[in-house]
Amino acid sequence: MSPRAARRSPRRPLARGRTRALATALAAAVALGLAACGHEDPPETCRSYPTVLRVDDPGLLSGYPATPLPVTARCAFDVATLTYACRASFIEGEAPGTERVQIRRRTFPSAAAFVAEGARPGQVTARDHVLTSEPDDLGSVGPFHLLPTRPIEGRFTFDALGRPESSDSLRFVEWDAFGRPTRSAPTGVCDTDDGNTYVYDDTRREVLHRWNSRTLTPGPGNTRPCIPRSRRIGFDDAGNAISIDGVPWTTVETASFCTRD
C-alpha cells in the first residue's frame, strides 16, 4: 500500500458513518413531520344562532289578543343536553288572563349535528322539534307562530343514508340531493290528499311547505274535501328561521357555537 493510500484509508469508514447518521436524522425528521401532519386538529366549523328575539307583528299572536307587544323571546343552546330551546310568554284568555310560557325545543344527536343544521335552509339534523308550554297542565301551547318554527316538526327517524325518514305520522318518500325531504306519502286526511311537499329555494333562502287540511263537516256523499294550505319560511345565512309568510321574527342578539367534530 502506498503512503498516500495509507493516509486515506482511515477516512472512508468515518465518511460512511456520517452519511448513515445524516440519513437517519433526515428520516427521523420526515417521520416526525408526517406524524405531526397526521395529528393536526380538524378545522373548526361554527354556527351563529339567535339568543334574543322580538315579536312586533300582531299577526304572530293570532288568537291571543291579550298578549302585549312586543314579545321578547330568549333562546339558548345547552351543550350538556344538546338542546336548542326558545321561550316566550303569552297571555291565555282575555286580559288580564293567565300568563304562560311557550317553548320550542330541538334536541340533537351531537354538537356537530347542531352546527350542520345551519348549512342549508330547512336542513333536518335534530332528533325532534317539539312545541310545549309551561306550566305543563294541559293548558294552551299559545300562538303557533310566536316562536320561529321550521318546515318540518315532530320526532324524527332517519334512514341508512341519514335522511329524515319520518316525522311523527308523516313518512317521507322523496328527497333532494342534500337529503332534505321534498314529499311525504299521502296522509289520508282528505280524499284527494297526495302528501306534504317542500320546495327549497337556496338562493332566496326560503322553503315553501304545502299540505292539505279539511273541514269537520263532511261534503256531499260523506266525502272529505281537501283544503290546500301553505306556508313560506325564510332563513338567514346561518340557517335560522327568521320569517313566516313574510312576517319576521326580529333577531336582537346572537351567539356562536363551534365544533371540530
Short synopsis of the structure:
With 261 residues, the protein is of the alpha+beta class. 16% of the residues lie in helices and 39% in strands. It starts with a helix and ends with a strand.
Can you describe what's shown?
- With 261 residues, the chain is of the alpha+beta class.
- The protein is built from 3 helices and 15 strands.
- The protein has helices at residues 3-8, 11-38, 111-117, and strands spanning 45-55, 71-78, 83-92, 98-107, 128-134, 154-158, 164-167, 170-175, 181-184, 197-201, 206-213, 227-235, 241-244, 247-248, 250-259.
- The strands form 2 sheets. It has a 10-stranded antiparallel beta sheet with strand order 9-8-7-6-5-4-3-2-1-15. A 5-stranded antiparallel beta sheet has the order 10-11-12-13-14, with no helix packed on it.
- The protein is globular, with a radius of gyration of 30 Å.
- The model is unreliable at 1-14 and 29-36 (pLDDT under 50).
Structural class: alpha+beta
The coarse silhouette is globular
Q: Report the β-strand fraction as a percent range.
A: 35-45%
Calculate the mean pLDDT score and round it.
88
Distance between the termini: 70 Å
Low-confidence regions: 1-14, 29-36
| Radius of gyration, CA atoms, in whole angstroms | 30 Å
* Strand order in space, largest sheet: 9-8-7-6-5-4-3-2-1-15
Number of strands: 15
Largest sheet: 10 strands, antiparallel
Q: Spell the H/E element sequence.
A: HHEEEEHEEEEEEEEEEE
Q: Residue share in helices?
A: 10-25%
Helix count equals 3
